[in-house]
Amino acid sequence: MSSTASIGARLERLPISSFHRYVIWVLAFAFFFELGDINTLSYTAPAIEKAWNLQLSAIGNVTSATFLGMFLGASVIGYVSDRIGRKRSLIFTILIYSIFSLLNAFAMSMTMLFVTRLVTGFGLSAMTVVGITYISEVFPAKKRGTYQGLIMTIGLCGIPITAYVARFLVPVAPWGWRFVYIWGALGFIFAILAGRMYESPRWYENRGRLADANSVMTAIERQVEIEKGPLPNPVERVEPAVSQRGYGELFSGKYLGRTLVLLVVWILQTLGFYGFMSWVPTLLVAHGFSLVHSLAWSSAMSIGAVPGAFIAYLLSDRLDRKWLVVIFAIAISICGLLYGLTFKTAIIIVFGFLVAMFLQTFAPLLYAYTPELYPTEVRNSGAGLVYGVGRLANVFGPMIVVAIYNHYGYQSVFIYIAAAWILLAIITAWFGPRTKGRMLEILNSAEASEVGNQM
């Protein structure tokens, strides 16, 4: 047997233990500040616009800078992490977004805020790519989606909590928005705690560092055995050859189809997700609601993120993730359209809550689904590429929203968002592979079916 299969089989047999629980808590709170920070601009934008006397298009430019940074971060870190390791990459990326979140608070001009948000975006998306890849590599297949959902449930609490931090801090003074970015810098604590995590033994093995892979795997097994007793024998299921592959692998064989599907899905997800989440407070103000009411309603809606992620935690390993992605994309489309077609406060809050809830059910499912479709050698590169291109799409996303709003009005923005989600659902249903409960090595073995034949 190859050591790749052996490492995979040894990881698959492990019961959930303190090793896994430590990963859960560190990554959950790294995501807590990462997901909160992604949304800080949407909560502070109306105050910045007023304090600096800006046009709506200027806010769109800073939003575009954030997503340009996210594209660069996701694209670069995929390559880097596949070479220097998941653990070091995770620590580095958390520090980047924490440090530059702090620097956002001291921005004195739109130019400086543009630059600091660009680098913050780099760290945010890079951390996401490394985090979801690490989870996919150390959790057993039958529990992978469940614990991805749990991590995201905790992490997504960062969105409503950050919303309420903004709700109370932004209105206190013209410069109150700066405190929201200081809050986001607290993620650095979890860069320190990540130093106690193990490197992914799957990554070690695929870099040819067999002794390191075995050493880490043995230490993990020893820790689990102390808590759980003797472990069952590993079950060897496949024997993939160890190889060193590059980006070209993503565009060859069966991975070409998977890459193209994921690229389109992530582009549509980004346009639909951030078309709603990033613009709700600003569009409400532009449409005539007060800043205080806009922040209050946005904060109330954001609470939906927590039950949404919990739904993903409950469902992820019970149904195939492909079909869950389709179902919740359709639900987001319907609720988002109903949200945009009404001007009644109660209905805005109810459907806004449902959109936020379903968005955060959808996100952990897609985060779990994406890295499963690639082999270990290019898993982080593949996840980074499709995630990064998706974020690159939102460099233009704010321009699209502003153009639609200026030319066709408030409701047309939400018709555009709903259309993006419906198209995503159709593409995933037709072309997306199934992954439920399948060991990563089996899913990516030579015998795996082609995209489009796994529906």
TrEMBL record:
**Native species:** Alicyclobacillus hesperidum
Coiled-coil annotated residue ranges, if any: none
Q: What is this protein called?
A: MFS transporter, putative metabolite:H+ symporter
Q: Which InterPro entries does the record cross-reference, listed alphabetically?
A: MFS_dom, MFS_sugar_transport-like, MFS_trans_sf, Sugar_transporter_CS
GO MF terms held by the record:
carboxylic acid transmembrane transporter activity
Q: Which GO terms describe its cellular component?
A: plasma membrane
Transmembrane segments annotated in the record for this chain: 21-38, 58-78, 90-108, 114-135, 147-169, 175-194, 255-276, 296-316, 323-341, 347-370, 382-407, 413-432
| Keyword annotations of the record | Membrane, Transmembrane, Transmembrane helix, Transport
